[in-house]
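Narrative of activities, Objective 1.

The group set out to show that a structural description can be obtained from nothing but a protein's sequence at a throughput compatible with the screening campaign. Below is one input-output pair from the validation batch, recorded exactly as produced.
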Amino acid sequence: MDLYLCTPIRIDSSKSYFIVGFEPKASGHTSHHMLLYGCSDPGSDDPVWNCGQMASPNRRTHPYMHSSPCRSGSNILYAWARDAPILKLPDGVGFKVGGDSEINYLVLQVHYHRTFDNDETDNSGIYLHYTEKQLKKQAGVYLLATNGKIPPHSIEHMETACSMFEPGKIIHPFAYRTHTHELGKVVTGYRVRTDNKGIEKWDILGKRDPLTPQMFYPIENNVTIEFGDRLAARCTMENTRDTVTKIGATSDDEMCNFYLMYWVEGTDPLEQPLCVSEGSPRYYWKNDPFLTNIPNEEASTL
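Output recorded for this entry:
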């Protein structure tokens, strides 16, 4: 249970490829989720390795070496869970890999949801649709996530927010994906922009019940994200258990993730693709001095 395995593919560095679609081949009965990473260097030279947060305690009973998915240059390109269907990117948009990009390897991570009998095998994975035609619009993924914990018998808000401080880049979001485990009720993501009167306007990027198929859905508002804007996400969690539930890697833990898929034109994707807060009880939007005019009810109800 809860074994994370990674396997790499080396990309031909003599030419560039643009990934324009992801076709998952997996079952939610077997795989809790899959992540596809673009790496400068893979986390291991082995054909398969344990890439979960926890190392296996006994190499004799757990034969895989332990390492992270990427040794350097880690970027999430795609995420799948709960039997989500194929994803096709907009026309003219693709993830650039190989060539003069920093992505020399693709690494697939599969989080296994159950144990296997000795004679069982598995071929979970992703078919990649790509073109060698040069595309001007490069795709990227920005992940908003939290740490923290959820008290027993409580409804808790796991929240995160970060500023966009990469000058000269205009981000065009086109899809979003939510991810929690069993306690998630609503996950909402926003672009927060201050108008010329000094009033913060919260534009919804996406809102979802995270227990529905965890695919990438179209962005709800056609907005751009520019220098000085803030990105914010909230996961509303309901813990009916008798114990505290922590953010962590196992199925009994929780996660609060909001993935934003976007494109940029004539430049590379964001250098910083991750926004992580300390989460409950250390971080809340209401205590963030850079956030006002918070849409509390809208962010927590479907």
